[in-house]
Amino acid sequence: METIVEVTASESTRAALQKPGPLKHVRFVSTPSVGGSVRRVVVARISDFEKRSEELQRLIVRGTSFAAPLVVVALQKDLQTFGGLQLLTLLSSRLGSKNGDPFVSPTVDAARRVLKAHALGSEKHLVAYATVKSGMLSVWSCEPRLYCCSSSDIPALAGLSADALKKVTVSASGSRLHWTDGDVDLDMDTIREFTDPKARKEAESKYRTDAIRYGSAIRRVRESQRLRQGKIAGLSEREVRRIENGEVLPHSDTLRKLAEAHGCSVSDYMGRVATESKTRTSSHRK
Predict the structure, then answer these.
(1) pTM, to two decimals
(2) Residues of the chain with pLDDT > 70: what percent?
(3) Closest by CA position to 107, among listed 133, 149, 80, 140
């Protein structure tokens, strides 16, 4: 569901963000409003800090703080003055870190991805920016929040060379990371599983739940045709038992063998399993 994103930004920053095109459901203000149900994001350019922007000064000295992510668009390599760095530190402190990490965006496109994601309410699931340096993968979600892990920790990336790893690109929407060499695609949820222990536990728990539900449905479809576990061509009785007990989820080749044993196509077989799974789930809810 889309919502209004209120962006606190200077006039020059607003112009830079809007130059590529309009941002749907994004409203620019010089100072944040109080109350309301809007999502708030603060965006600044490096030049705002170097010029000691009056808008940012007013934001810092407000009597009460408010929680909002901070995005800094780095159209220059570094802050050039200590004063600018101090302003950034003060602003980060004022905003707090509960809703995200201060994000220095190297491009306007990455900053726009953050705003679009907040408008969609999908900031936790979309990527703002990513780099690989010295084998370390750093991914900024659109919250924005930084997630880091060794590229070798991710099986799909473990075999890529150092040069290939550096060639990571982010899709326009932020829905995926792509490595042309190896044809690897990863989404933000997958990255979080490898970098956040809590997310990893949740993913493992979901996998076990799905495997048990799916395995039970496979067993019931088999029993409805009075097939024995040991009579599935190409699969051992142990392999079928592990699937039906929810220890593993079947791969495409396994599904093909199961479908053939039931005398139907893979799509028809998966449809029968899905129907059985939904029917049993609905009966439990009642």
Answers:
(1) 0.66
(2) 80
(3) 140
